[in-house]
Design goal:
107 residues, alpha+beta, four-stranded antiparallel sheet, 3 helices, 4 strands, 38% strand, elongated
């Protein structure tokens, strides 16, 4: 397992994404949250196929903070089941990874 993670999370709009990003940054659970507006998600929900325009958040953090980060997102996210998926950052520029490390809280 890598020390650093990239967490994917969608939100229904930019206002919600900005609010989630701000809370994660202020709590030092993430070093950076990039917002990608205008994505289209197609998925099964409650027995139907749904299609929605959403904002994709790319959240850069540390593996040891995932559970806290996940709990914080769940506490403020409007979806019943928000997308919260983490993938390991296998490689990265050492200066950027050091910046992530120095920016987030120590668990």
């Amino acid at each position: 397992m890598s020390e650093f993670i990239l967490v994917f999370c969608t939100s229904p709009d930019e206002q919600t994404a900005n609010a989630i990003a701000a809370q994660l940054i202020e709590a030092k659970l993430a070093a950076c949250v990039s917002l990608l507006p205008g994505i289209t998600s197609v998925y099964h929900w409650q027995g139907k196929i749904a299609r929605d325009t959403e904002v994709q958040m790319l959240i850069k953090s540390k593996s040891e903070l995932f559970e806290q980060l996940c709990q914080r997102i769940r506490s403020i996210h409007p979806y019943d089941t928000p997308e919260i998926i983490a993938t390991d950052i296998v490689k990265g520029d050492n200066r950027y990874l050091t910046w992530i490390n120095d920016t987030v809280i120590e668990s």
